[in-house]
Structures are given as structure tokens and as C-alpha cells.
Specification:
Strand content: 5-15%
Oligomer: single chain
Shape: elongated
Strand order of the largest sheet: 3-2-1-6-5-4
Structural class: alpha+beta
Number of helices: 10
């Protein structure tokens, strides 16, 4: 995922957190060297004291959050006994007292931290805590999707000659499943273009057919083609298993197929799937 897109995702999560909780100040950043986090996004700050601040693992509240890979909070930052105090000056300049820090964890690796803060020494309530965790989960999902997208695009560019058609079909299904989840229109268009190249490589130019499938019906067929269950396909596409089943029935009816496998084969022969 590009740095610009990561920043957009982080900024949007912070805005949602502030609106949901009424916290006067929210901020955060991502790790760029595996150990140090740089505060890049702030909302509600009245001074530049925190912007660009580099937070090391183990130092301050954010550093403790990085080291433990779990949410941490203090009611009165300057007086807190369970954190180190390397960053007391910028925190004091901004006038922050009660602070929560929530890690962004993707595949067991901490990728960044979201913060929320009050200017009074008041306990962080459960509602604020839950909202901060939910905002972090949103960023984590976006990071995971972009990581997988980047991996697939890199694999497509560097693919060795002669991949099996099953590998092409699996890549096609994964890309089709990822595309609707990507908010960046440019990246989404690139994904769909790659899908088109995979289809052409596997089937040649599609033959005209009278019956066409909707994009969602094609997504479901592509997801189950490698042998995935309805539940697995639903999880990949962000749908309910019952919804996947409904799309399968509709596709089977249009293709005149009695089973999902017959539908997949028919769609491939028609050039609708690789």
C-alpha cells in the first residue's frame, strides 16, 4: 500500500473515532522502520508539538503499546507511574492528561498506533475504549487488504512462464474478491484490469453468450471455483453464507447448471471465468 493511501486510511479512522467519542484530540502514526513510530496525523490539536514526534518501542504510552501489542491508557499522563516520560514536554505543551493508545496489528505485527486524549485527568470510559478499538480494526483490515493486493500484483508482474491454469484461476478469484473492498478507485481499476488479463490468458477472447452474470454472481463463482465452501467464500467476499448461496442459485439457473461445479465449468467455457 502506498504511503499516501495509508495516510488516508489513518486519517479517516481518526475522524470516525473523534466523531464517535467526542474526544477533543486524536492522533496516530505508522511504523516505518519496524521500531519507531512517527506521529503523522492529528485532529483537534491546537499546537504543533506532537506532529512528527518519533516514538520508540517501550518509550512513553505509545511505546508501551507497541511493545505489549495491546491497548494502554493513563488517566493523568504526567503523573503516570507505569510508563516512561521521554515525551512529557510535547504532551504537556498540547495540554493532554488522559490518553489511550491502541495498536494496529496485522498478521501479529504491530504496524502503528491510534491515540485519543482528553485535556482533563478523567478515566477513559468503556464506550471510548470500544470505539478506539473499532477504529483500529478498520485500519487493520484496510492494511491487510492492501498488503494482499500488493502481493498479488507483484506476483502477477513477476510470474514465471508457464503457471498452471489452476494458479491463474485462484489468483483471478482472489483479485475479484479483493477489488470491491479497495476504496482507492485507481487501485481498484488496476485490480480489475489484472482480472481481465487473467481471463484473456486463460480463455482467449470471450465468446458472446446470450446469458450474462452479474458482477456479484461472477465473484461468487470465482470464489467457489477452487473448492471453497459457501462459508469460506462468504468470508472472502464480505457476505453472509446465505447470500453466497443465493448468488450461486441465480448463476446456476442462468447457466442451466445443476451443481456449482457444472456452473463453474460452463462459465469457464463461456469465457466468463478463467
Amino acid at each position: 500500500m502506498s504511503e499516501r493511501t495509508e495516510t488516508v486510511e489513518l486519517r479517516a479512522a481518526l475522524l470516525r473515532l473523534r466523531r464517535a467519542t467526542g474526544l477533543p484530540v486524536v492522533f496516530g502514526g505508522l511504523l516505518h522502520d519496524g521500531r519507531r513510530l512517527r506521529i503523522a496525523e492529528l485532529d483537534g490539536a491546537v499546537t504543533p508539538a506532537l506532529r512528527g514526534l518519533a516514538v520508540s518501542t517501550g518509550s512513553g504510552l505509545g511505546g508501551k503499546c507497541l511493545r505489549l501489542s495491546r491497548p494502554c491508557a493513563v488517566t493523568d499522563y504526567p503523573a503516570a507511574r507505569h510508563i516512561t516520560h521521554e515525551y512529557d514536554r510535547p504532551v504537556s505543551v498540547e495540554g493532554l492528561r488522559s490518553v489511550i493508545a491502541v495498536p494496529l496489528v496485522v498478521r501479529r505485527k504491530v504496524r502503528g498506533v491510534l491515540y485519543g486524549a482528553l485535556r482533563d485527568a478523567l478515566p477513559i470510559g468503556e464506550r471510548v475504549f470500544d470505539a478506539a478499538v473499532a477504529a483500529a480494526r478498520d485500519v487493520e483490515q484496510a492494511l491487510a487488504v492492501r498488503d494482499e493486493t500488493r502481493r498479488l500484483l507483484a506476483a502477477e508482474r513477476q510470474a514465471v512462464p508457464g503457471p498452471s491454469w489452476e494458479e491463474v484461476r485462484q489468483a483471478h478469484g482472489e483479485l475479484h474478491a479483493l477489488a470491491p473492498r479497495v476504496p482507492d478507485p485507481e487501485l481498484r481499476a488496476r485490480l480489475l484490469a489484472v482480472c481481465g488479463r487473467l481471463e484473456t490468458a486463460a480463455t482467449g477472447p470471450a465468446r458472446p453468450v446470450e446469458l450474462t452474470l452479474t458482477p456479484r454472481e461472477l465473484d461468487v463463482l470465482a470464489a467457489v471455483a477452487p473448492g471453497a465452501t459457501n462459508a469460506a467464500a462468504a468470508d472472502r467476499l464480505g457476505l453472509r453464507p446465505e447470500t453466497v448461496k443465493g448468488y450461486l442459485r441465480s448463476a446456476m439457473r442462468k447457466l442451466g447448471a445443476r451443481t456449482r461445479w457444472e456452473a463453474v465449468v460452463t462459465a469457464r467455457r463461456a469465457g466468463l471465468l478463467p
